[in-house]
Design goal:
Shape: globular
Strand order of the largest sheet: 3-2-1-6-5-4
Number of helices: 10
Largest sheet: 6 strands, mixed
């Protein structure tokens, strides 16, 4: 995959360290799932709502703060240009000026303006805060997804994740030719029509384009000409080797660059 990832080695090392931290956090968060009503989560999915709408953020303030501290370590060590902003968040949390659980709950509801206002009130960078909280929450919802699997999705036809509710901007064709969406937040996977926009549901073949970024590569870009959104595609039938699906978002970073050029 390395030749397809448009970042320098130092930045890639930070990405990989973040994945290792999240893997550890996923294990530690698994024990917290005893607080989650798994039946309510599954019932929500059966009714067409994401599981997160029923369970919310079950982690405590200290658990989220500990996750943020662990996530911050490789960022501070490996990305000097971001270190001050990251430390600013840690100092606000340590000094009691910022509570992370309310921010996490706002982000889960999609209230990004509320999260930004909380950052400004605490005097920290909004992007740094939202990134740290999101990276700390991802392992928790990955653990939830694993705990309530196999998912009984029934007629789930949404491009939103049935577990956390995020819109999926990544999909793959398996080796049998079946298309799946993969949530970039919690890792949940589900079957989905390959020619349908995950964001607005447009499935008019004349209004959906699929662009191959390079001949022979297993990477492609889906673009909706109704809502202007894009999603990244990995075709496992064309891959020369096995790449763990948890790395697909990293593997396809070049597609984000291409999309920004096309859609600007």
């Amino acid at each position: 995959m390395r030749g397809d990832i448009p970042v320098d080695d130092a930045t890639l090392d930070v990405f990989l360290e973040l994945l290792e931290v999240q893997h550890r956090l996923k294990g530690s968060y698994s024990s917290t799932l005893q607080r989650v009503d798994a039946r309510a989560a599954k019932a929500a999915i059966a009714s067409g709502r994401p599981a997160a709408s029923a369970v919310g953020v079950w982690l405590t303030e200290e658990e989220i703060a500990q996750g943020v501290r662990e996530i911050a370590e490789p960022l501070i060590a490996g990305l000097p240009g971001e270190a001050e902003r990251v430390r600013g968040v840690l100092e606000a949390v340590g000094g009691g000026r910022l509570k992370l659980k309310p921010v996490a709950e706002m982000m889960l509801r999609g209230d990004l303006e509320g999260a930004e206002a909380a950052a400004e009130e605490a005097g920290v960078d909004p992007t740094a805060l939202s990134s740290l909280v999101a990276w700390a929450l991802q392992p928790a919802f990955a653990a939830l997804s694993q705990a309530i699997s196999p998912l009984e999705l029934g007629d789930w036809g949404s491009g939103r994740c049935p577990v956390c509710g995020s819109y999926a901007a990544l999909g793959y064709f398996d080796r049998g030719g079946v298309f799946h969406l993969k949530c970039q937040f919690c890792g949940t996977e589900w079957e989905y029509p390959s020619g349908k926009c995950p964001f607005c549901g447009n499935d008019d073949p004349d209004l959906v384009s699929v662009i191959e970024v390079a001949e022979g590569k297993p990477l492609a870009l889906g673009i909706c000409h109704v809502c202007g959104s894009y999603w990244k595609i990995v075709d496992e039938r064309r891959a020369s080797g096995e790449v763990p699906r948890d790395l697909y978002d990293l593997w396809t970073l070049a597609l984000d660059v291409v999309a920004r050029r096309i859609l600007r």
